[in-house]
Every structure is written in C-alpha cells, then in structure tokens.
Amino acid sequence: MTDSGLAPLPASDRPDTAARLRDALLAASFTADGLLDLLGAPAYAALARSETVPALRATRGDTPLETLVRLFLLQQPVLHARVEAVLPVEEALEAGWLTRVGGDEVAATVDVRPYGGLGGEDWFIVSDLGCAVGGAGGIGQRDEGVVLGVGGASTTLAGITVRTPVSSALDLGTGSGIQALHAVQHATRVTATDLNPRALHITALTLALSGAPAADLREGSLFEPVADDETFDLIVSNPPFVISPGARLTYRDGGMGGDDLCRSLVQQAGERLNEGGFAQFLANWQHVAGEDWQDRLRSWVPRGCDAWIVQREVQDITQYAELWLRDAGDHRGDTAEYQARYDAWLDEFEARKVKAIGFGWITLRRTGSAEPVVTVEEWPHPVEQPLGETIRAHFDRLDYLREHDDAALLDSHFKLVAEVVQEQVGLPGAEDPEHVVLRQHRGMRRATKVDTVGAGFAGVCDGTLSAGRILDAIAQLVGEDPVLLRDRTPAQIRLLVEQGFLEPVS
What is the chain's percent helix, strand, coil content, to nearest 5? Predict the structure, then answer.
C-alpha cells in the first residue's frame, strides 16, 4: 500500500507470516517486560521521551533482543546475517515488513512496539516509522496521513473503558488499532472505522501481529461507515479532538469549527447504543467567555443517556497552541512560519471568545430511566488505572440510588469499600476535630468531608445492620433525637454511595 509521501506498508493479507514473526519476537523476549529488563529503567524512560542514545548504548551487543530493538524500535539498519538468526528474513522481506538497504543490511518498514495488555498479554502495536511513542523519530516531521502508535491518550482510553463481555463494539477513528485490539478480547464482533485508509491497514497489522481476531474495518469519518440501523453495546473513540484552525494533520485535527467534532460525536452516539451500552471518549472542549463550561458539556449529552464527564486538565489558549505546534514539530522549522501559525491559532480562539481548553473523559450509558443523571466534574488528581470497573460501578450505583427513596435507603445495608481511611483535621489537643475526611486509596482516589455522624456511620458499615438501625444506635450514643437524625442523614449516605465510599449489600 502506498500513500503520498509515505512508505509502502507490509501486506495485511499474510496471516501466516504475521504469526511466524510474532513467534520469533516472543522467542527473543521482545516484550514490554523484556525491554525493561534489557534497557533498564533510565534508558527505557528516555526512549519514552524519544531520546534514543541510552537505548543505543544498551543494545551494542548481538543478542536476538538487542537486534530486534535496533531494528524495530530504533530503526537502525542491521546486518542481514544478524537478523536472519532471529527472524524469517526472506519471508519478512517478501511480505514488506523489512526492506534491503545497502549491500548487506535490512531495515524495518514500520515501527513495532511491544505493548502489555490489561491481562498481561504480550501484544505489538504497529505504526509508521518514527511515529511510535518511544520510537526513534520523536515528534515532528509528520506527513498528513501518518499513523501514530500508542501514546498517553490511547492508554488512558484503554484504561477507562468498561470491559464487560459484549456482543458488539465500535472503535471510531481506530488509528493504529489499540482500542480495537482491546475490544476483540471481550466483544464478539468489533467494527473499527477510520477516515485514513492507511490506519485501517495498520490496524489489521496490529491485530495480526498480536495474535488477535480480525475486526470489521471500514473507511470513513466517525459514524459515516456505520449503517443507520446498526447499534452497539460499546463505542470507544480517541478522536482527532485537537481544536485548531483547519485540519492540517488527519491524526489529530478534527476539521470542524471549535469543539464541534467532539460535540457531534457525543450527541450522535446515543442513538447508536443498545440499552445499557456504554460510549466512552476522550475529548477537548472550549471554555468560552460568558459560558459555564459544565453547562456547555451537559448540553452535549444525548437524550436517554446517563453521563459522567470528568475534566482532567485545563490549559490557557497560549499553552494549548504551543503544545500542538510543538507536537507537529513546527517550532523546529522557519521562525516566521511558526509565529504565523501561532497567530492563526490565537486569532481563531479570540474570534470564538475561547479563554481556555479543557481535556477529559466522557462516558455515556444508554438508560431506560425517564430521569437520566448527568455528572460533570473537575478531577485533576491522580487516579488508579485501569478504571473500567470503577466507571461501571459508578453507573450501577446511579441505578441503585434512583430506585431507592430515603425510606428504602434507611432499610438498606451497606459496606465500607476496601482501602478507605479516615483523616481528622483540627488543632492539636482539641476535643473534637474541625472536620473529618474519608479518603479512597483505589480507583478515583476521592476524598470527601463528612461530619462526625457520617464518619461514625461509615465506620460501622459492614453489611450487618440496616442504615436506619445504625443511625438509631448513633442517636442514642450522642444523645440526639433518632427521628431528626434519620431525616437529615440520607443525603450524606447518598453522597457516600454515589462517590463509591459505600456499596449496597443485598
């Protein structure tokens, strides 16, 4: 396959060749763990920053693993004889995975990056030369049609995705295929789309080299390749969400005005979901002067869907423009051209009254409830990935709270989740703390303030007694009217359940 200005790709219709290459890579320990053992933590971290010198120094020997690292990660020509001892060279040359250079050397035609699955699987992500995160090319020097490898955004989406077994999944804008690779592990049927035909070709290579089932690959933008009557149990997308003037780079620039691409994607997803199905996206959104950013995002949520939207980061427009201009390598070129492009970004933002850009996660769940719940929050703090089970549990708790009024809540039994600690804040020697904080050490790692009744209630929740009986005991202990305590405490219980500190016990 040939794209303008881009090298031909390996054949995607040679599964036997991909299988033999996979066997050879695994036999040489060309895996995420193998790389860390070979390179050591400093060189491995440097490679993730696209600094290759430490890795080059660590691969000066002639072991099979060193040969593969130089060939596929560092993109160095390697003697034919050395590669022949590790890979089926002639077959790899014929299929296009390798090419001859000079008189007696071969070189890789694509980046091949070892990647560890969530279950410890040894997979391989294929991308264009110099476009794997941690590969030899670093940022910049990117043609419009290049296909990038796995990066921070890709792994974030993979980590937050709900991984329950489903019949059908859709990966919109598949890129190098990482989301499709995860999806085929728990979905009977996976459809992957991309506007760039080169990305679909590389996705097929990623799946084949990883020993994964094939996906239904379709060319087109977002939902365009999907039939009107097709619905799915899971939709995931790491779309080209960058808000930029124009659509210079296919892999990142949405090509619509402002944040319209992300808005359209979210709004159209609702009608494509089966009942109970999830749609999960990464997105950028504008903070516009005179608008509440949370209200802006609530307006995106389609009817009939619960939603949980988490803003993870906010950048002012100058930081944002600089980030993506550097991503494209523009800062390395002509100074006047760089400044002109910078001006164009700021002109675009000023015209739209944009003051900042938010980044985060959007999760939708199709619900049969007449009163969907939309939660929009800012959470820039560290979390524990993977979060898929945490996100699934969040929506289960929404169902529970919807179905239980205050009386039913007081008749229910709860259990404090594992690894929650209590912190008391106040002056040394004071009889009572100023406030009590409950803090999670798993999942979202939330912290929430509670009063002494809330702290005492949570502390004795082990599923044995109903919430009402616990409150009656607390009322007797502190000398408070039990009826008044029952009246004022359900709101605090709801908050602790909603945020995942307490879980219902059937």
Answer: 40, 25, 35
pTM of the predicted model as reported, rounded to 2 decimal places: 0.94
Helix H or strand E segment including 188: strand 187-194
133: left (phi over 0), alpha (psi -120 to 50) or beta: beta
Grouping H, G, I as helix, E, B as strand and the rest as coil, residue 416 is strand
DSSP of 204-251: HHHHHHTTPPP-EEEESSTTTTS-TT--EEEEEE----B--SS---TT
369-392: pLDDT as tens digits: 999 999 999 999 999 999 999 999
Q: Residue 29: which region, alpha, beta or left (left: phi > 0; alpha: psi -120 to 50)?
A: left
CA-to-CA distance for 158 and 116, rounded, in angstroms?
A: 12
pLDDT tens-place string over residues 427-476: 887 777 778 999 999 999 999 999 989 999 999 999 999 999 999 999 99
Amino acid at 31: T
Extract the tokens encoding 198: 């080169």
- Chain mean position to CA 180: 13
Q: In what order do the strands lie in the sheet with 166-172?
A: 216-219, 187-194, 166-172, 232-237, 273-288, 354-366, 305-316, 374-378
Q: How far apart are CA 231 and CA 278, in angstroms?
A: 11
**Three-state DSSP class for 404?**
coil
